[in-house]
């Protein structure tokens, strides 16, 4: 059987059936953004890992080594944020073909260190190996949370409302500009959108704030809003509706003539925005909004959790749009 026949998540499900084992300390594993386990008292340890492969996750013609180092760290810190954790230690491993120079590696680590410093995380080690094919890398991060704050994909309930922590689509639009340099855009717009792709932010503070104020299921938007909500639905065994007219689209996309007609598609399924999407009971949404407003942090209601087993994307609350998130295979 080819992997493409079952897709990334079908393969993960088969792996889970092989490796799963009950453990009284393990509270989250395959199916969530991090593995989570009890480490004593009320503390929860979090482990996440991400592999990035040249020409699949990034193209060297579209990024500097510094930006690649920075973003690779943010992608994993974002996983920690999605489970209401704080990143602490990081391991970085590089698989280096012969066209990668010493100067490239040094710049990569400078970018990685900048991202770590921003979020209080320390690069504690890693590994280096050679490659006869493309450049690839792996980042693993250890973080911590509290039992009462930990959020998993499986905790959404019918009737919950769905929220995101910021505008979407900017990263995907930035990638399009990088891949097609002939695209017409003002210097300001080009800079804003490419920065969204190359220098994203992890929403650590937002994850903690959401968890403290009623969030139930939560994850980061790395594979597109629709895809991430689908993950929550699968793990929580419920359905969801996303209302297109409520989804916040990055305004800069609308300033690029060749992109503005597909701005909503980029927002719904583009990915790598690293905002958080989470569910929250209706009775707690007022206090949730108040908490975000007090910290001057954006918050957008985009849908609701329903009975069923799939995600509906509705335009004007009636017409259904068929979209899905990113998959690796």
Can you describe this structure?
The chain has helices spanning about 5-20, 65-80, 100-120, 170-180, 185-200, 205-210, 225-235, 265-270, 285-295, and strands at about 25-30, 35-40, 45-55, 85-95, 120-130, 135-145, 160-165, 220, 240-245, 275-280, 300-305, 310-315, 320. Helix 3 (about 100-120) links the parallel strand 4 and strand 5 (about 120-130). By secondary structure, it is α+β, with helices and mostly antiparallel strands. The two termini are about 15 Å apart. The strands form 2 sheets. Strands 8-10-7-11-9-12-13 form a 7-stranded mixed beta sheet, sandwiched between helices. A 6-stranded mixed beta sheet has the order 1-2-3-6-4-5, covered by helices on one side. It contains 9 helices and 13 strands. The chain is about 35% helix and about 25% strand. The chain folds into 2 domains: about 5-145, 60s Ribosomal Protein L30, Chain: A; about 155-320, Alpha-Beta Complex (Phosphoribosyl-aminoimidazole Synthetase, Chain A, domain 2), CATH 3.90.650.
